[in-house]
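Supplementary Text 2. Reproducibility record for the structural model of the 333-residue chain.

All settings were left at their defaults, and a single model was retained for analysis rather than an ensemble. We include the record here because the model underlies the residue-level annotations in Supplementary Table 4.
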Amino acid sequence: MTVTPLDTLSFDSDAHAPDERFGRYRSLYASGANAVALGDAVSGSVRAWRLDRAVIFDRRVAGIGHERDERRVVETGFDHFTLTLLLAGRFEVDAGAGFVPLQPGSAVLLDMTRPMRNRMWHAHAVTVSIARDRLAAFAGDVARLHGTVIGRAQAALLTDFLTALLIRLDTLSGGAARRVTTALLALLGVALGSDEVDHPKPAAVTLARRMAQLRELIAARIGDPAFGPEELVASSGVSRATLYRLLAPYGGVAEYLQARRLDRVRLALSNPLEQRSFAEIALDSGFKSESHCSTLFQRRFRSRPGEYRRQVSFAPDPDDPRLALLAWQQELR
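Retained model, structure tokens:
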């Protein structure tokens, strides 16, 4: 029987010429954050694995900081969380109240809908990007979690698991992704002291499952301009009241559909292999006109579509890790 491994990507700045190393690293992270050199001696290596609406990164970084100001938060449209566990070295994080050091063996949670900064010196860290609804099923109210630091004692079991996981990830099959993600989230819930772990709330699990089904349905139909709130109600298999309750945190059904269409446009414009014009992308994403899409895109991302495309453009090699990373980030929404 053929076993399909987990999808993976890798990057090592030392594989490039000295005068290219930081620029290459900055480009890798450009889709999500601005990388900042903290001195002349900078380096960064990254290995990443795609899980179930989660991505795990094994990072070794020296002399580099990462910043997401309010503009970058809007431009990227990210809605997920990151968990960073420091294994060794020096790491400082600013979740809005100034830089604080993270001790080896401790971890921090960050909400990507909010600004943040970090600084890393000879740091070995594991970072896990997690879809918001997946985290909520195990940690309860996630709105309170931005900037939460999990101390070494509370994170001990999670640290053991992640350390062992890094060794074994290359031996796992893609079919194990969901179970690995579930185990990771359960241990994160334990580290947070969440009641959801000891006393699971069926409503939270049901919500996560229904949202997953809605995302699949919408992804399959989003290119049809006739697919709107009424069509979603008719094809979703849930009552109108339930559907509107599910999507109320996103501004309602119409707003959620519009956001998904705009995300599809943004992802296409971010893809350097995408050859279609903006007009074609807009129509293929379910917008009835190019001008309407352009107005909404500029309102949400604070940039005209053409300007955005120029800002994020790059000429990739076929195996450029940025291509995979862009697709994986889209799955976290």
